[in-house]
Fold each of these.
Amino acid sequence: MSLGFDSKRKLDDVIKQIDGNWRWAIANDERPVPAIIFGTPGVGKTESIYTLVKDKEDAVIVTLPASTLEPTDIAGALKPFDDHFKYLPPEWALPLLARNMKNKWAILFIDDVPTAPRQVQTAIFKLVHEGQFGPSNELARNILYILAGNLPEHDAGAQKILTPLASRCQLFNVVPSVEKWLDIALERNFHPTIRAAIQNMNDLLNNFDAKSLANPCPRTWEMASKNFKAAEYNNRKPNPKDIEGLVGEAATAKLFAFITSSKDALSPSQVIKDPKGVKMPEKMEAYYVTVSSLEAFTLENPEVILKVIDFFNREDCPAIDVAGAAASKIIPKITKRYIQQGEHHKFDELLTSDTFKKFTNKFPAMVRLGSELRAIKRGM
């Protein structure tokens, strides 16, 4: 099956475009353009859909797994009642019916569509094209239809999507964004070694091989992170053989070569104790792990932020861009927390400190952040 184009786009960029199209449609009383998102297994297609409703009040999202559906699961069916038959719509559809819809924002997300048999895809086509199913059951016109799945070359049980269905949708072929994944990994407190390795070697994040059952992708790296944490909990070192069963042999070899090179990484406690005097790691891999550990530690302990910035500010910093990227992630999160909790004095202390001023002048990305924070302060 050919999509008719070869370009692949970052998943978070595609989600932003779909969101923009959806907002325009709602504002202009138009039906949103349906979308089909293709991508290799484990890139985060399903999870990303839920980010579309995060900032929309009373949003409704209904998810259907196409691979397990029968046509009647979509269209409903006639059921015997005493001496007659009665049509019963499927339960998933009840909140989305035009006569029931009271929400401005609604998504019908149908996952794994390429694995669905032809009869199921035909029923999905009727939904997407006509907004109807069964006898005279109309879905609300503001529903955003999003379909997702793998391509046949991904060897994940996918088959050809019906041409009439595909031609009614905007098609996207996606890959994960390393930057977005690193943000998510920090928020979820993935193991710092996993985060540091992928920040250092971007190609490790997603490298699908249809001939291999174990592949590196966002899903398997999350499981690898849990494996590392479980090893620490049980007072043992991570076992490469365990990680191979998640991300494959090649990615595991690169990961553990990185670990060997980063053995001199500093712990957060070492940095916080003497940020200006502690010996800076000599190898870049060790510095990556040090910074990754500091990111998570600082979010949990925001009172150490100035000491962390002192460490990032050092003249012997081996990677200014890495330090700047880390700071640009953690500082906005901490300042937002200060504002939400009404701790304006802490916000002021950070913003007016010589440490922060020196840092924002040193890193180009931080100059803009400093200006944004000062604008927030003026509006407080």
Amino acid sequence: MPFERDLVQTLFVVSSSNDEVQVHFPCPQCGHRILKLVVGPPETKETRDSFMQHDEECFALEDVTRRFSFLFECTDCREPVAVCGVTATWTVPTYGDDGEEDGGEEQEEYFYPQFILPAPQLFAVPGNCPKEVKKELNRVFSLFWCDIHAAANAIRSTLEILLDSLKVPRKGKTKKNELRPLKLHGRIERFSAKHPVLGKQLLAVKWLGNPGSHGGKEQLTKDDLFDAFEILSHTLDEIYTAKQKKIETITKEIIRRKGPRKKPGGDVPF
């Protein structure tokens, strides 16, 4: 699947009147799209800071913060997935059978994960993507829930490993013909010389990953990482899915001809 921004943003919205919790992100083990809470209702406990505010005049239910823990299980392969984090409670209108507001109210508790083990893939990684790239992406997916700056840093590291797999050198010659390490930006520029569109996409992801490595004036948000995921998932599909389709086309032509395929433009002179 491509990166689904709306899905990630609404993973854990649970009504207080509904103890059965299901989430629709891929099982980390088999990729099945439904994880179901093993035991309900979710276990929650109010934080000390939240409890100490109860006597304040302006205190409201929306000020309550709880910590929660879930144990989900894949409805297909039975893989257990542990989730913990914090909650927020909101008062929302209720609706009648006609779909219109009926004048009532209820509380909905929003569950914000800060740790998931094992972490789900937030977008599908092409099967023929190098294992080193997949491994680093899994680290990104895990860090996303608890530390977005660390996740951004891991995104930059993913780009370095991706460029390694694409045979983009880590060193380049200076004007004095001396070998010097290339920064990530320089490596992307070298890649862009042959692949300008993909290079621009990688450069955009690099800029989003920079705050994780270098800090900066702008505060990094999860929306920024969503942008990086959306671009990177598309770029990986373009690199590896397109490559797979090309191999399949070549294979089919060789089998059809029962020998060498016809080369465009004739033989290459050597």
Amino acid sequence: MAMLEIRNVQKTFRTYAKPGLFHRPGARKVASELPVLRGVDLTVEKGDVVAILGPSGSGKTTLLRCLNFLETADAGQLVFDGESFDLAHASRADIARLRKKTAFVFQNYNLFRNKTALQNVTEGLIVARKLPKEQADEIGMKMLAKVGLADRADYYPRQLSAIVDAVLLGEGITAYGPLQRNRYDDPDVEHYDYDPQKAKEVLEAAGCMMGEDGYYYRDGEKIGFVLSVGAGDQARLDIAQAAAQQLKEVGIDCTVEVPVEVDWGGQMAYLIGWGSPFDADDHTYKVFGTGKGANYSSYSDPLVDQYLTEARESDDPAVRAEAYDKFQEELAENPAFTFICYIDANYVAKDTIQGISADTVMGHHGVGIFWNVCEWTID
């Protein structure tokens, strides 16, 4: 017997017309229909690793959500571990019983904001599996260690990704480098994660002392700076204010300003952003290269210049990968910026346009959405 079988799963999303002046209570008129799942069948044997592939909007996530009753299917049967479930008419008891044996990983984090990282991991073990807290904590710590978060077990979600969650509402990821969403990314380079305790240790090791007002001082001068933000970009302003608040909590007096005119040579700090186009060269060489056009901070590192030049002068992917690995390692040793986050580009279009896909790197402000326009259709 197969470990999992699904048969004839169907799901159609409907929009409904606004009720008119005269209408029967409870009656709704369908304005449009979008069939997403049309009789999906699947068999999974024990030990199988199955991937569902398809373009954006083809129903991959909808199918998974239906299997865990996060969406109610219009029809379909699920057989799991020898037990059958009606995907269109399951009881709460049936759903609870299935969820004790299965798991669903969301595309966004969906963490409990009032629980620590460890508590988020152990919640299901304690509540659903009824494990003792000590045993659940032991398992949870092993899982956190696997992903390099053992030292963040007591951190709350707002401390781990406050800006992404609070400002971007989850529409982005925390950043550790300039090639993070590029094919040449090296995830093993040193990450300068948000760590208030470590920040205080660094400040005190440099001779700073905490004053009665909650800010650090050195040689009688308060540690602080002004963070400038360009006018007209509310998202960046909100990010700057969130970063300033985090710095204040550490003991650094950071204030945010929106200057009428940017003084590139005289500013103390500036929140800058740039895109991630298709090739890594475009947003590295001109940004970090000595004297290049988009190097607004006058950053200079001979090894960075060397590795970026080696990467741009070769069309061999292996040579470029090696050069970009060295570049990222050197940049982590001698940072040009504090990397904060990558912002997702979200698109809004009429529902009569089908085929829009964001399954590629779009570049600055999401330019490039028309990359597959030849596949679009208009109903």
